[in-house]
Amino acid sequence: MRRRPDRRDGAVPAPVAAPQPLMRWERLVMRRPGLAYPRLQGLIAREAEPPFQALLGAFFILERWGRGPELQIELERALARALQQRLLEDAAELSEALGRLHYQRGDYVQACNAWSQSLELTDDQTRWACLARIGLAQLCFALGDWARGGRVLDEAERHYPRLGDDAYLRAKIGLNRAVSLRATQGPQAAMARLDLARAAAREAGHRDYEAEALWHYARCARDSAAAAEALSLATQAVDLARRCHYRWLQAQVLLLISELHAGIDAVAPAEQALALGEALQSRSIQAAAHGRLSQLMAEQGQLGPSWHHQQQRQRLEAALATLGQTELPARLEQLARFDADAQAAPAAVALAEAAGEAKALLRTLERLGADAGVQGADFAVHLRDAIERARRLVDRLG
């Protein structure tokens, strides 16, 4: 992509590498958020026009604590100020942060607009462009467009020259890669990526992503019919998420824990997840929690509460579907200019990816065949999963 003419001071392009003091400040925010936040809060309160980096640091912390919306108005004002003053790098970073806020809440069109604005304001080589592309990849995954999402992640990695020195972004990309691999190729294909992502999170000192890696390990164990291992990993993940005050992840892991339990033991985790989803204003978490509670109430013969939760789930899912089926796909299609490999990917690469999926599927079917004597719901679930993956592979190969 072409370079944009205006930079922070209107004359000299900002260096790609962050200054050392800024890198140390980011490390403090990641490692000691409880220590950093009061200082940032005081700095913001003292200034009529708070420094951009103070706002961004405070938002990074509050985002994890489930309080990101508290700073939405301040971030929007700061973005308007940066645009007015032609501080385009600052504007790109602020817009990227707003994209994360919208995404967590389920406002996918607004998230898409914010991240695309970041890409329009900054060079491909900047950290903010890398972060924006990761966000757009997440939107693609949310729509089930795994191929495009993977290409957008490729672009994020390809263009950011400092990725080797940026453990936080390596962890973020690795977690998203693992999600894609688990969905398209199965749990075993995701494990190596999870190992790398967890190591990068430890290098960055970012315990939130360590906890997130544990959650993904738990999901892989569940998909592999290792329920006891999945519950152990999920318990570790939710404990670490609580210590980090990472409320979005707490809700996600509690939903998994509810799924791994049965009967009355499954109710409390689902109720806790619902309360967190409401506090986070996250439609997707609320919908999932209502769906789980509806199922559990029905199993206990409580048809009234079950109906209520089912109605709430349908209402929330309808709101998300409206975004996902109308405006958002069209908006993502407009971003094809940022997806440089969409038309150019060689057929050999696509065939190699399909071959990898075929090998993973073959291993799954062989394992299921060896366990053919096993009875019960778990066997049926995994057999249906293998059949569905086979259908997707057939469609892909034509």
Q: What layout of secondary structure does this protein have?
A:
Blueprint: H1 20-31, H2 33-46, H3 52-64, H4 72-84, H5 88-105, H6 108-121, H7 127-142, H8 146-159, H9 167-185, H10 187-204, H11 207-223, H12 227-244, H13 247-260, H14 267-280, H15 283-299, H16 303-334, H17 347-370, H18 377-397
TPR repeats: 92-125
Keywords: TPR repeat
InterPro entries: TPR-like_helical_dom_sf, TPR_rpt
Explain this structure.
This protein is mainly α. Among the domains are: 20-130, Serine Threonine Protein Phosphatase 5, Tetratricopeptide repeat; 166-240, no CATH class; 261-336. Helix content is 77%, strand content 0%. Helix 12 (227-244) packs antiparallel against helix 13 (247-260). The radius of gyration is 22 Å and the shape is globular. It starts with 19 loop residues before the first helix and ends with a helix. The model is unreliable at 1-22 and 341-349 (pLDDT under 50).
Helix tally equals 18
SSE order, as H and E? HHHHHHHHHHHHHHHHHH
> What is the β-strand count?
0
In the CATH scheme, what's the topology name of the domain at 20-130? Serine Threonine Protein Phosphatase 5, Tetratricopeptide repeat
Level of helix content?
over 70%
What sort of overall outline do the alpha carbons produce when their principal axes are compared? globular
Share in β-strands: under 5%
SS-derived structural category: mainly alpha
Report mean pLDDT, rounded to a whole number: 83
Unreliable runs: 1-22, 341-349
Radius of gyration from the alpha-carbon trace, in angstroms: 22 Å
End-to-end C-alpha gap = 34 Å
CATH architecture identity of the domain at 20-130 = Alpha Horseshoe
InterPro entries: TPR-like_helical_dom_sf, TPR_rpt
Keywords: TPR repeat
TPR repeats: 92-125
